[in-house]
Design a protein that fits this description.
413 residues, mainly alpha, 18 helices, Serine/threonine transporter SstT, transport
Amino acid sequence: MKAILLKWNRISLVKRILAGLVVGILLALIVPKASGIALLGTLFVSALKAVAPLLVLLLVMAAIANHQKGRQTNMKSILILYGISTFLAGATAVAFSYLFPVRLSLAGATEGLTPPGGIVEVLKGLLLNIVDNPVSALMNANYIGILAWALLLGFALKGAGDHTKSLLTQASDAVSQIVKWVIQLAPFGILGLVYESITASGLASLLSYGKLLLVLVGCMLFIGLVVNPLIVYMNLRRNPYPLVFTCLRESGITAFFTRSSAANIPVNMRLCEKLELNKDTYSVSIPLGATINMAGAAVTISVLTLAAVNTLGIQVDFGTALMLSVLSAISAAGASGVAGGSLLLIPLACSLFGISNDIAMQVVGVGFIIGVVQDSCETALNSSSDVLFTATADYAKQRRGEKLPLLNTASLD
């Protein structure tokens, strides 16, 4: 048994995940009523969600408490990259909607969902999350609140003794080790998630929304494979695709199936470590990115809003389209890092065109119907770009210092 485990661990994690994906599809087709298989996916996602808040709290606290003067982080550059990418995603989605207009068949309104009343409410929610009770923030996976408390406690502990700082570092290392153990179970988790997705939702229900899905997924692919690489190239002045494909492969695959940026934080932390990035930087930028770096959400908001606009025959001028790009980028930053978090922001964007809340909520309902594909692609784009831009800022800083490292991707196979 030990020999089998050693051989298993020698296989690349990505290859093991792909094997789990294939087995999950086969099992869904052969034994569609074996509900116990889906439990593997539920347990995997639950384990990631359980460990992520504690990991973020301890990593950020340790990084801030042990930070020495003279060591600079790249948070300003990363935040700029996050903002540029999210805005360009919204603008690209608007352009795609002009080129490939989609009209919807709207039915009954969605019940039991309460969208935010305006952009002020979204921003208010973010501010309230910052001052959330620390215990409540940990219990509810409120990463803005967790980050705020971790930063405050980290700064407060900068003057603590070496023994205290060492204990804090050891605690963060221990949780990081638990994360590594959980991630090793990813092939089984992906197997369960794929099985559940195919047996529960199927693909037949998506056929009537094929054009909408093509526009959404096509736009996200364009962002991930064209726009983001251009941003990376402008910063590194070298071929961006080795880094882009590494992030999509190592982070995007798991994010696609977990459908939660928050649950993918441990995966991204591990990837940043393998890329040998600055721990002081990525321990903050990754959880922050899971909250505010939402290019995929900006695409979803813009495309579905303009689908409603086209359905109602509303004319959109350039100025309004530009406003929608900005609004989708800002509101996307307020989308929660859980499955379907961006859909409830669609009524906010629809209000820009005077579309009633009843109709907007019908569009939200359409979003939930196609969510099995839309939200998976959205999360894969969001989460993988957290690592992509963190690595870009780190490598760009080293490039300016005339010591540009090789993009450390070969060791990941």
